[in-house]
Amino acid sequence: MNIKISHKEEQPLLSRIRITGEISFDKETPSRKKIVESLAKSLDKDAALIDVDMIKTAYGQHSATLTGYAYSDASVMPKIKRLGKKALEKTKKQQEAAPAAQ
Predict the structure, then answer these.
(1) What's the pTM?
(2) CA atoms within 13 A on the CB side of 50
């Protein structure tokens, strides 16, 4: 897997950098976890501060476009990052189970 960063946009109000680029790979599309690790190495940041927003692969191609964010601080990330439907349901169940356990 090879990641080529084509554009970095500083977003100081959100304390992050928007990253766009292209990924080239041999077999299947790499997982978000592998992409986050690779971006963290290339940007010299902690993997916990990287968020991959979109991986778009064209049918039959061995490349994909990438959009992601590199946050400057871990405390800012949960305030800005959008959660998906499954993640929202999971946190809701955990919150409902917590008062029942007490």
Answers:
(1) 0.76
(2) 23
